[in-house]
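Exercise 7.
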Amino acid sequence: MRACATVALLFLLALPTVRAVGLPLALHVGNIALPGGLSLSDVSLTCARLAFDGGAFVCPEGTLVIRTSPWGALRLPFTGRTDGAQIHVDARSFAWLGGRVGFTLDIAPGTRRLRARVTQVSLPALHALAKSLMPAQAQLAAHDLTGGTLDLELDCRLVDGAGAARIGDCAARGRLAALDLVGTHSADEATLEFDVAQRQDGAVRRWQGRVVLEAGAVYVEPGLRLGDLTPGLLLAATNGPIVADVVASRDAAGRIGVERCHLHHPGVAELAFDGDATLLPTATWRDAHLRFSTGALGRFYAVYLQPLLLGGSLGGLRADGSLEVDLHVT
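Solution. The predicted structure, written as tokens, is:
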């Protein structure tokens, strides 16, 4: 998709040099080199009617065809408009990796905005593409993704900073359906919904995320090491969806904090933290309220605690009963 947008932008940037108005336009490029060693071949761009409207060049009906690319063959219908300082590209829905993709791209001095919609894209095909584009990425090579589809809505801004561009406000929401993954992390017929956002508030960057495991099971290793062991958590949506809701932030000094952390695991436990907790570089709490309850202490221990205690004296405990905690820290 990035390559398609790049080619369309190159065309639109060249429009001010074209003096034909209301005439068809056709361009063909044999090969285009992209950053990262990528390339596109046999690229054709047509505009049924190039017009001049309100001080801007407009292509109300265009088509970009890429016959050879890392993404496979692509055919993108689009509309475009530029007045030299600002560019707008709207690529209507096109076929990609077994599903459909559409996006709009707006470029103005100092900022770029990308909005995209992905529907029923094949996750195994996406995973294979990512491995081919980033062969040195160990996490990609360590996993085998054999099933699933992706639906995604994305809205991100790239802001020019001192010497480099950075991601500004960005939001993504979507759904992974029938996910089958084997590797360090794994999934078995898992369906997950996610809604995550990043906001820049002055010098503070905030993240808000919500993940719902609707069906199936996932196994996640959080990265802890206990001697020679790397414990992991097995989460299964047996009694209903598992919901995790987190709000976190990072300030200019690099301090990472958590303002909200809620977990709803039916039949296992309920956890709600609201307040001001700093995780890094030093763990501190203040103005915090922690509520925890479980009516199945044995299941909570087996799912969340026992994996972290393996190899220790508490790794073989048997737990039963219920537990409630309501803690205020000021």
